[in-house]
Amino acid sequence: ARIPVLCIDGPTASGKGTLAAAVAERLGYHVLDSGALYRLVGLAAERAGIATDEAALADPAVVARLAALAERLPVRFGDGRIWLDGDDVTQAVRSEAAGMAASRVSALPAVRAALLALQRGFRRLPGLVADGRDMGTVVFPDAPLKVFLTASAATRAQRRYEQLISRGEPANIDSLLADLEARDARDRARAAAPLKPAEDALLLDNSALSVDETVQTVLSWWQRRQ
Ligand code: C5P
């Protein structure tokens, strides 16, 4: 039998990361935070002095450099921390700037293709919980359970706001809302692996659910799918 994978896809700040971590903990599974990989490509590009604005990305030479970077991403994961080229970038990958850079570089098919093998390598026994935008549609199409997690834009902006404030970072609810709507629009509109539920995904809107209720719902679906 294949190693089990539970996919959680959905828009920005829908609570995928929290849900994936909690479900993985309960099942004793590994976790793949695929968004972190795209964020790491954005960070690595910045450090290498490769611009990722729209004009730069229109240049095939820039795209080729980014794909090469993604192909040999000098990244190491462990103990809940992420190192890029030996530097601890656990905080830096979560920044809004890294998220916006990720959203731009992730629209490039060459970058997506370069990250496929790395992502699939996370599928190890006893199992994997994978969170992202295309886990169920592209990376693990044979997964026995695909959850598409959503919440209203207002709910998601509020959650992101509270997360930033609790970390002592400055935050503005209106600009967070505008940023997440821009990012979702780009993720949905792109030709390469657009954000959309897999045909066999189960939809879950957690706007009015607690974290615990969301986790329990997914665990009960998983038990029935196994
Ligand atoms: O989930 P997170 O906010 O960390 O992802 C950052 C960006 O990376 C997303 O806005 C999206 O553009 C991109 N991404 C993607 N495919 C994934 C995960 C993330 O395109 N599987």
From TrEMBL:
Q: Which domain of life is it from?
A: Bacteria
Q: For this protein, what is any one GO molecular function term? A: CMP kinase activity
Which keywords accompany this UniProt record? Amino-acid biosynthesis, Aromatic amino acid biosynthesis, ATP-binding, Cytoplasm, Kinase, Nucleotide-binding, Transferase
Presence of keyword Transferase: yes
- The answer to keyword Cytoplasm applying to this record is yes
An example Gene Ontology biological process? chorismate biosynthetic process
User: What are the annotated GO cellular component locations?
Assistant: cytoplasm
Binding of ATP occurs at: G10, P11, T12, A13, S14, G15, K16, G17, T18
Primary location recorded for the protein, binned into one broad class:
cytoplasm
Q: Which compartments does it reside in?
A: Cytoplasm
Q: Which residues form a coiled coil?
A: none
Using the record's annotation, list all stretches that form the Cytidylate kinase domain. Answer: 7-221
Q: How does it assemble?
A: Monomer.
Q: Give the protein's biological function.
A: Catalyzes the transfer of the enolpyruvyl moiety of phosphoenolpyruvate (PEP) to the 5-hydroxyl of shikimate-3-phosphate (S3P) to produce enolpyruvyl shikimate-3-phosphate and inorganic phosphate.
Annotated family: Belongs to the cytidylate kinase family. Type 1 subfamily. Belongs to the EPSP synthase family.
Protein name (Swiss-Prot/TrEMBL)? Multifunctional fusion protein
Which organism does this sequence originate in?
Tepidimonas taiwanensis
Q: Whole protein: which stretch is covered? A: 450 to 675 of 679
